[in-house]
Fold this sequence. Notes:
By secondary structure, chain A is an all-alpha fold. Chain A has 10 helices and no strands.
Amino acid sequence: MINWRSTFAIYRNELSRFRRTVFGSIVSPVLTTSLYFIVFGAAIGGRINEVGGVGYGAFIVPGLLMLTLLSESTSNASFGIYMPKFTGAIYELLSAPVGVAETLLGFVGAAATKSLILAAIILTTAMLFVDYTIAHPLFALVYVMLVAASFSLLGFILGVWAEGFEKLQMVPLLILTPLTFLGGTFYSIDMLPSPWDKIALANPIVYLVNGLRWTFYGQSDVSIGVSLGLTLAFLAICVVVIAVIFRTGWRLRS
Amino acid sequence: MEPIPQPILDIRGLTKVYPGGLKALDNVDLEIRKGEIFALLGPNGAGKTTLIGAVCGMVRISSGTINAFGEDLARHWRSARQRIGLVPQELGFDMFDTVERQVGYSRGLFGRAPDAKRIEEVLRSLSLWDKRGEEIRKLSGGMKRRVLIAKALAHDPELLFLDEPTAGVDVELRRDMWRQIGALREQGVTVILTTHYLEEAEEMADRVGVIDKGRLLLVDEKDAMMRRLGRTEAHFALAAQLAEIPSALRDYPVTLSEDGRTLCYRGGDGTGKGKAEVAAVATALVQNGVVFTALDQKESSLEDIFVDLVERQGLAA
């Protein structure tokens, strides 16, 4: 049976850390995203034709939102579990009456919540630069929550795996960000010459960006069913990996 | 006849072998009684922290069983851990958080409902109330250690582990902590502490265990151990050189130094017998006209017993 008090304690503690670093946590991603909108949306976007009937500035909104979601969810969750390991405070978590469910709901829930807050701020910021619509708002919300949870789970795994700050940054910087840039954030896969349009489909981020784009504009390069299925499969794999980590105590218990 | 109370912690055949092959715990059997203060003594690397880690969930055991509060810890870990507190050896917490928030977090983490009054009590008892709004990183080393204790007490544990609680703290704070631990005993909390400071064990513990190289060498009541292994040592500085031990002293455990200037008594059993015999030796010397100019007498401490045990164990190995 889940210990809800423990779960809430972890959740609240993580959000408290977020509040303490609110300037860096919010201002930095908002500023970065604003720069993207200024450069790609307003400056360059004005010279680019509509993509699939959507203005270029509006077209990149889901991609930029996904970029923020992926990087923030991953880094928040990885930092959340890595810091107690680094400071030695992990002893308390390991000796507490909490198992995998409480830990995941606490850490991953808090990381996902932070990401959702940021996503909302970024969408609001985007309104200042471009006109966009959300065709399926409820679906968009569910999809964003699903992606935030999935990549928070990935971040948690990275945080457990990492033995130093360098490793902690490695996956978000060297894998996630490049894949997101190459995953159709700023362009439609149709715009790529052959065979790159086919090769691009091997990039899992393409399905995430296009899934979110579908919820905004009702159209995307790949089927929403495939996007949703892959996201759910990724979430399930992460949950299984974390369950194994807790069962074996890998990198947590000696 | 009163029934023998069930131990609050019952460890049987506990063994921990680390992946590199190091046997940190070797078939340890240990019973801890409710309400006692148990001191686990041992040199660095003896297995003290591993033993605590095995009970508290940080170390995966290789074999053996641990029963806490009458239940198998492996099966009933959730309910057991709610009743166990741990003060680790190393300072480990979110240094940028405030004292009060961190202590409140610990209470919640262990499944207890928020209770501002109880948190205040804990903070006041550790002289931390005035520092409740401070970031932990701004506190002194001793205060940080108190925060660790406050975190461990926040969920009102019945069994408290203190891993080297006074390592690196000044004498005043150490004595203050001893008072705190004494107060916990008054409240019925069972305390298991590991320490390098034998004075600490001697001052507070009801029972003492000596561990070395993962093996529990001895567990006994502190007073019984002192009685059984305690010794009195007395050195008589003689005014004139003696060729041999006077016949009146033949029945006492005395030796004469090579230069014949010092008579040494080593005996007793920690019950006062040694002191009485030293007095008798002194009387016999006077009665036999042997003049001594100085007398240096000391009772063996827990430290002497501990060092002796560990050394003997080393020789036997």
